[in-house]
Amino acid sequence: MKLYLGLVHHPIKNKLGELVTTSVTNLDIHDISRSCRTFGVKKYFIITPFVAQTELVNEILGHWEQDKANAFNPDRQDALAIAQVAKSIDDAIAEIEKIEGKRPLIAVTGANFDSFDGDVKELTKKMEVLNMPCFLLFGTGWGLHQLALDKAEFKLSPIISKNSDGYNHLSVRSAVAIYLDRLFGE
Question: Within 13 A of 32's CA, how many CA atoms are on the CB side?
C-alpha cells in the first residue's frame, strides 16, 4: 500500500468554523515524521502557505541534516528525511502525481464530519480495487475546512474509545499514530 500523509495548516477551521491558517509546531514535525517512517509512509507533507512557516520547517529539517546533529541522532534525520513542506494540498497532490505517475485517492480524517465512508479496512480495500496511492489528510486547529473536504474521496470513520463518555479530542500526533497502526500494524 502506497500511503502519503499531509498535516494541513490551511485551509483549517477555527472554533467558530471560519477559514484560518494554523501555526506549525515543532513537535508535529518530529513526532509525525517518526510515526510515518515507522509505518512506511512514502512522504509526509506539512502544508502551509506562509513563507515564514515554510522557512521555519525547512530550518528544522535542515538542522538535522547537518553533520553534528546527524551524528548525534541519526535516527531523527532518517525520520525527517521523508518530511517536506508544501504550500497547498494541490501542490502536495502534484508532487505525489510526479512520484507515482497517477493522482492519489484523497482521504480525510476528522471527528466532526456529518457522514463517513468507512474505516481503514474499507479505505485499504478501495485503494486496492482502484490500484491507487492514497493521500491521507489530517487537520489542525478545529479540523479541515470545507475547502479541504471538497477534495476528499473518502472520509475515514473517527477514532472512538469503547470507554468514552463522548469526549473526542485527540492530539493530531496521537491520531496519526493510531490510524497508521490500524493501517499497517499487525
Answer: 30
Provide the grid cell at 70.
Answer: 546527524
8-state DSSP, 164: -
What is the per-residue pLDDT for 57?
A: 86
Q: Residue with C-alpha cell 492519489?
A: 104
At which residue does the C-alpha cell 475515514 appear? 156
CB atoms within 10 A of CB 20: 17
**Residues of the chain with confidence (pLDDT) below 70:** 63-77
| Domain at 3-184: CATH code | 3.40.1280.10
Closest among 177, 41, 19, 8 to 108, alpha carbons compared = 8
Per DSSP, the residues of 4-56 read EEEEE-SSEE-TTS-EE-PPP-HHHHHHHHHHHHHHT-SEEEEE---HHHHHH
**pLDDT at 58 (0 to 100):** 87
The residue extents of the domains of the chain are: 3-184
